[in-house]
Specification:
By secondary structure, the chain is an alpha+beta fold. It contains 13 helices and 17 strands. The chain folds into 2 domains: 149 residues, Chloramphenicol Acetyltransferase, CATH 3.30.559; 238 residues, Nonribosomal peptide synthetase, condensation domain (Chloramphenicol Acetyltransferase), CATH 3.30.559. Helix content is 37%, strand content 24%. The strands form 5 sheets. Strands 7-8-9-3-14 form a 5-stranded mixed sheet, with helices on both faces.
Length: 435
């Protein structure tokens, strides 16, 4: 691979509180998001490197480092070698190599914030890795689509001449301005205060063995789940969230018959489709919804209850409220939030504490993310950050008609068998619902 370097201006631009929050989380645990694409043939590594250089030329935050200062900001890196953002790995066992790649972290203070890895076995596997400090899953998908488009256009060129997308306003402010003060207050109340009441049993301490596991739901079952959602007037997310909650509750000590909180996410971009919002940004937020932990309920009845609870939360703009409360948390300053998170990190290492389980449906991976011309994609899925103790989460993503459930966790804190049992439980519950 030629040792080419790309040069930039080294300018700075604001890091809003949503970026600051994910940066602070990245100092505690692994905040990497990965998109894994398995292809039916071999890609041209020169064109891939060209495509990645072109993406960095168009997206300032991805070619920047996070300045961890009293007033945090982004700073463009003045120069980047190809090795800083692209690598080729030849593998006898691509899955072993993939698991190794998924554990390679990007330090947001060093940058760049995105890296592309080509794993070459009998077939190619492509891994786009982005630090959550720079973007949520929406931005990862958008970046992948640009890489694929530039790959198709990069024939015989070292770097495409592409217009740079200005950083724009990556904060919550444009979204907040869309809503009236009364709506914002209603949303704030609907979000509610955080109330961690239960959590998957884990061993406190340092995370020495981060790992990932995933489970694919077959197209046949996914089609039946989709048909059920239409028949019942539920969303697929309702069904998945319900199945996750029921499955994980089998592993968590609790009082049967009570409602317990579970975290889930919403992309604020979808709430205000008329307001321009950058794709590469942190505009997805997590909020709590309370669901019944009641073994007497059938899986489908529980899904209906989940739909009712989610409709109430969405109707009262709870996702917007979560963003408002995060903004308020930073009113005391970046350093104050850092101190509170450091206290939590110390507590997790020494004594453990409760942390509500977390389910995220990162949505559909569109065909343009995997359109490399003649080389077709066999599969694609998103891999979420690694949750350190006491956290536990599962993320869902869909490519074609295959749904993938993925979890990042600490094997020395939560046994892999427990995580696999939760994923299998989700599949079993979905089968029961559609049966």
């Amino acid at each position: 691979m030629p040792g080419k370097t790309i040069n930039f201006h080294g300018e700075t631009f604001p890091a809003p509180v949503n970026d600051q929050w994910d940066f602070l989380l990245s100092t505690i645990w692994d905040q990497m998001i990965h998109l894994v694409i398995t292809l039916g043939g071999s890609l041209d590594e020169e064109r891939l490197a060209c495509a990645m250089r072109s993406v960095l030329a168009t997206e300032p935050v991805l070619r920047s480092r996070f300045l961890d200062s009293r007033v945090p900001c982004w700073e463009e890196l003045p120069a980047l070698s190809t090795a800083a953002f692209f690598s080729l790995m030849r593998a006898d066992d691509p899955e072993v190599t993939l698991r190794h790649v998924l554990l390679q972290r990007i330090d947001p203070r060093s940058g760049p914030q995105a890296r592309l890895t080509l794993i070459r076995g009998r077939k190619d596997t492509l891994v786009l890795s982005v630090n959550h400090t720079a973007s949520d899953a929406c931005g990862v998908r958008d970046t992948a689509a640009r890489i694929a488009r530039f790959y198709r256009e990069c024939r015989g060129k070292s770097t495409l001449i592409c217009p740079c997308i200005p950083p724009g306003d990556r904060s919550y402010a444009p979204i907040f301005s869309f809503f009236s003060p009364a709506d914002r207050e209603r949303a704030r109340r609907a979000c509610g205060d955080s109330s961690a009441e239960w959590g998957i049993p884990c061993i406190p301490g340092q995370c020495q063995s981060p790992c990932h596991t995933w489970k694919r739901i077959t197209p046949d079952l996914f089609r039946r789940v989709r048909s059920l959602s239409r028949l019942e007037g539920l969303t697929i997310n309702d069904l998945l969230l319900s199945a996750f909650f029921q499955s994980v509750s089998r592993e968590i000590p609790h009082t049967d018959g009570r409602n317990y909180p579970v975290l889930t996410t919403v992309d604020l971009r979808r709430m205000v489709p008329g307001v321009p919002a950058p794709a590469v940004a942190n505009l997805s937020v997590a909020f709590e919804v309370r669901l019944p932990a009641d073994r007497s309920l059938s899986p489908l009845f529980h899904a209906r209850e989940t739909h009712r609870a989610m409709e109430e939360k969405k109707g009262n703009l709870a996702g917007l409220g979560a963003a408002i409360r995060l903004q308020e948390r930073f009113e005391g300053g970046f350093s104050r939030v850092r101190e509170s998170l450091e206290d939590l990190a110390r507590a997790s290492r020494t004594e453990g504490y409760l942390k509500n389980p977390f389910f995220s449906n990162t949505g559909i991976i569109p065909p343009e993310c995997t359109d490399f011309g003649d080389i077709k994609a066999v599969s694609a899925f998103l891999v979420p950050p690694v949750d350190y103790p006491p956290g536990f989460s599962v993320a869902a993503s869909t490519f074609g008609e295959t749904l993938t459930l993925a979890s990042g966790f600490c094997r020395d804190s939560v046994p892999a068998a427990v995580v696999e049992k939760v994923l299998q439980g989700i599949e079993d519950l979905l089968r029961t619902m559609v049966g």
